[in-house]
Structure formats: structure tokens, C-alpha cells
Amino acid sequence: MSLDDLVGLLDEAGYSAKVVRDNAILVQVDNSPVVFFLTDQLSIEAIAGFPGLNASLDTINSWNKSKRFSHACLDDDGEPILKLDLDLEGGGVTKGHVKVFFSLVRLSVTTFRAYLAGK
């Protein structure tokens, strides 16, 4: 998968995608910046930021214990971020599969934002 393919799929899924580096695309999900990184065309990593929100390590650890497809951590500034990965190796990953990944990213970002707001 190329970066142009990824931009096209994000556009088809209703995102306003902006290429920010040679391997990175920025979109907004639930008022959070999400960057999709295409790593050697072998995987897609989504990283969502939550500027201005705070989380303790206990809050982050609690999220990570209860979630299977995403993981949270604190960035260098102590703000929470959420990461999700999609492996593209081995073939068999369809455009539909990638769009389902986008849906999972949206659901995870929205759920994580609500989780942080409730803490």
C-alpha cells in the first residue's frame, strides 16, 4: 500500500486527510489529531493525541488492562496518547479491512476521550 492509497482510503471513509511527512497523514477524530504512519508499506500505525487532557499512569494502565486492540501511554509532555496498529504483511489485507481499521480508530479515540473525561 502506498501513501496515496492510504490518503484515498481515508478520503473515501470521510476523513479530510493531509499529508504531513513522506510517511504520515494527519486527520481529526472527535477533536483529536490522529496521525496515520505508513511504515515501509508493511504496517499502518495510528497515533491519537489528546492535547490539554491529563491522565495518571494508573488511568493509563487501567485502560491498557481492559483493551486489546489499542494501547495508551503518556508522551514526552505527559499528555495521553493512544496507539493502534494494522499489519499489512503477508497479503490478504483488503481495502475493506483497512476501512474497518479506520472505524476501530474512530471508536477507540472517542471511547478513550470519554474515559479520560470520566477520570
Salient structural properties:
alpha+beta, 3 helices, single chain, globular, Yope Regulator, Chain: A, 6-stranded antiparallel beta sheet
Spell out the blueprint of helices and strands:
Layout: H1 3-12, E1 18-21, E2 24-29, E3 32-39, E4 43-49, H2 57-66, E5 71-74, E6 80-87, H3 95-117
Antiparallel strand pairs: 1-2, 2-3, 3-4, 4-6, 5-6
Molecular structure report:
The model has no long low-confidence stretch (mean pLDDT 93). This protein has helices at 3-12, 57-66, 95-117; strands at residues 18-21, 24-29, 32-39, 43-49, 71-74, 80-87. It has a single domain, classed as Yope Regulator, Chain: A, CATH 3.30.1460.10. It contains three helices and six strands; from the N terminus they run H-E-E-E-E-H-E-E-H. The chain is an alpha+beta fold and 119 residues long. It starts with a helix and ends with a helix. A hairpin with a 2-residue loop joins strand 2 and strand 3 (32-39). The protein has a six-stranded antiparallel beta sheet with strand order 1-2-3-4-6-5.
Outline, from the CA principal axes? globular
Residue-averaged pLDDT, rounded? 93
Contiguous helical run count? 3
Which stretches are low in confidence, meaning pLDDT under 50 for 5 or more residues running? none
Number of domains: 1
The run of helices and strands is: HEEEEHEEH
Helix content: 25-40%
How many angstroms does the end-to-end distance come to?
A: 39 Å
Strand content: 25-35%
Coarse structural class: alpha+beta
Rg of Cα set: 14 Å
CATH topology: Yope Regulator, Chain: A
Quick overview:
The protein is of the alpha+beta class and 119 residues long. The protein is built from 3 helices and 6 strands; from the N terminus they run H-E-E-E-E-H-E-E-H. It has one domain: Yope Regulator, Chain: A (2-Layer Sandwich).
